[in-house]
Each structure stands twice: as structure tokens, then as C-alpha cells.
Amino acid sequence: MFKRIAVFCGSKLGNNPLFETEAIELGKWMAEKDITLIYGGGSVGMMGAIADSVMQNGGKVTGVIPKALFKWEKGHQNITELHEVEDMHVRKRMMYEFCDAAIILPGGNGTLDELFEIMTWNSLDIHSKKVILLNTAGYYNHLLAHLEYSQQQGFIHGNWKDKLTVVDTVEIIFSTYGKDKS
Question: pLDDT digit string (tens) for 28-43?
């Protein structure tokens, strides 16, 4: 069972209400399973939704936010622990170091950057952390098609499906990773 999961997601909520609903459900599940949320430290968008959900359900939240984004992402003041760091590189490195696994929710360029960096580090054996892509409402379908095309064109080492688990709902995460390992 994972004890600390990094969640990479948007600083906006997006246009589909299901994105926020799934973030809230994931946060509730993490709190119930005593899994600490490691995330980008913001109080807005998907980031705020999952952090608030974990905290409201009695869980622990560690945020890591760059100084330059503190106002933009509204650094969350009501979480267990908030680290204000110099830049995005330090943020990502700390989040990877703090977590046992990562879940990627819908988001924009920053979320994609985080996804590709953690996948790259897995491919290069810098770490071997479980990476789960939550493809809520097919949000990542085009990206997954591109990964498959890149694989077919010979630009991806190994099989990307070995490094990235794709699920369509939070329920699948619960049923697959929610069981205590005894």
C-alpha cells in the first residue's frame, strides 16, 4: 500500500464538472486510507479541490510551491505542511522524492510537464515509482494516441504501457490499490 502519493493536476477546474468530482473522491479515499497527498501546494483549481478534500476528511497534505507561483496558484494555508521553494525544478524533484507513487489528473501544460518528467525518469531507471494516469471522461485520449504513435515510430524506449497505468475512473484506483497488503 502506498503511504504518500503525488498528485499532479491543474490549477484550474476545467470545463467538465466530473474532473473536480473525481479529484474530491480521490482526496477522500486517500484520507480514509491514511495516504498523504503530495501536491503542488495551490488552493485553486484541481489542486485546491483534492487538497481540501483530503484535509476535510482528516488526512495529511504536503504542498510544494515555487515562490513565483505563490500568488498565481494561491499557496494553500490550510494544509498540514507547505514548502515554498525556488523554482519548478525544485518543486518537481521534491514531490518525486516525497512520494511512493504518482497519479496524474486532468491539467494543462504544467501537469503534462510533470507527467512526462516522471515517465522519463522511470524510463531512465532514475526511479521506479508507480505512475497512474486518470483519464477522466477520456481527457487524455489524444495524448494516449500520440504516445502509441510515438512508440510505433520508434521514438520511445521500451513500451510506454509498462511505465504508465491508465485508468478511467477513481473507482478503478480504489479497487486496484485500495486493498491492504498483508
Answer: 999 999 999 999 999 9
Percent of the chain with pLDDT over 70: 97
| Cell 509498462, residue located | 162
Q: Going edge to edge, which strands form the sheet with 81-85?
A: 81-85, 61-66, 36-39, 4-8, 101-104, 130-134, 165-167
Residue with cell 515510430: 153
Can you tell me whether residue 117 is helix, strand or coil?
A: helix
CA torsion, ordered 98, 100, 105, 108, to nearest 10 deg: 40
C-alpha cell at 129: 515509482
Cα 121 to chain centroid distance, Å, stands at 15
Q: Which residues have C-beta within 8 Å of that of residue 131, sequence separation ≥ 6?
A: 101, 102, 103, 104, 115, 118, 119, 122, 163, 164, 165
Q: Which domains can be identified in the chain, with CATH numbers?
A: 4-177 (3.40.50.450)
